[in-house]
Amino acid sequence: MGSILDGALFTSAFVTLFVIVDPVGTVPLFLSLTGGYSPDAIRRAARQAVLVSFVVISVFAFFGQRILAYLHVSLPALQCAGGLLLLLVALELLTGRGDEPTRQGDTNVALVPLGTPLLAGPGAIVATMVFSKRVHDVGDFTAVALAVIVVHLCIWLAMTFSVPILRLLRESGILLVTRIAGLLLSAIAVQLVADAVHAFVLAYR
Q1: Is the confidence at residue 202, as pLDDT, over 80?
Q2: Residue 126: which of 21, 9, 4 has the closest Cα?
Q3: Mean pLDDT computed over every residue of the chain
Q4: Interatomic CA distance for residues 40 and 15, integer angstroms
C-alpha cells in the first residue's frame, strides 16, 4: 500500500485542509447566505459550492504557480483580494442587506462567496499548492488528491445536514445566526488582509 498511498502525506494534507476550510464553521455562514431558499435550493447550492471549490483548488494545485507567475500576482495579493471580497459579504450580513430571498439566486451565492473565496479561499489554495510540490510519485499524488476529495465530502455533508438546522432555527434564529456569521466573517476577512499586509512588509523591507 505504501506505493499506492502515502498515509503520512494524506493525514497531513487532510488535517491541514480540514482546519483551514473548517466545514463545521461554514455552516452558520451557509445558513445565513441561503436563509431565504427552499430545502431543495439549499441542497443545490451546497452541491454547486462544493463543486466550485473542488474545481478551483484542483486547478491551483496543478497550475497555481504558473497562473500567478503569468499574471505577476503574488500570494499575499491573492490573499488580500480574498479578504476584501469576504469583507464586502460580511458587511452585507451585518447590515441586513443580504437577508432578502431575491439575492441574485442560489447559483451566484454558490459561486461567490460560498465556492470561492469562502471554501476555496487563499488559505486552502496556498496549502494545496504547497502539498502539490511534495508530489513525486503515484503514492504522493493519490494521498493529496484523496485528501482534497475527502475534505470536500465533509463540506458537502456539513452543508447538506444544515437543512434540518434551518428548520429548527426558523426565521428569528437565522437572523441571529446571520449577524453572528457576519461578525465572524468580518474578523476572518480583516485577518486575511492583515496577514497579506504583513507579508508585503516583509517582502519589501
Answers
A1: yes
A2: 21
A3: 83
A4: 31
Confidence (pTM): 0.75
With both helix axes pointing from N to C terminus, report the angle between 122-132 and 39-71 in degrees, rounded to the nearest 10.
60
Tens-digit pLDDT profile for residues 21-50: 888 778 888 888 887 788 888 889 999 999
Q: Say what the pLDDT of residue 51 is.
A: 96
Biggest CA–CA distance in the chain, Å, is: 53
Long-range contacts of 168-175 (CB under 8 A, 24+ apart): 169/31, 171/35, 174/31, 174/32, 174/35, 175/35, 175/99
**Residues ≥6 apart with Cβ < 8 Å to 100:** 36
55-69 burial: b if 16+ Cβ within 10 Å, else e = ebbbebbeebeeebe
- Would you tell me how many other CB atoms lie within 10 Å of the CB of residue 89? 24
CA distance 106 to 143: 33
Q: Do residues 196 and 80 touch, judged by C-beta distance below 8 A?
A: yes
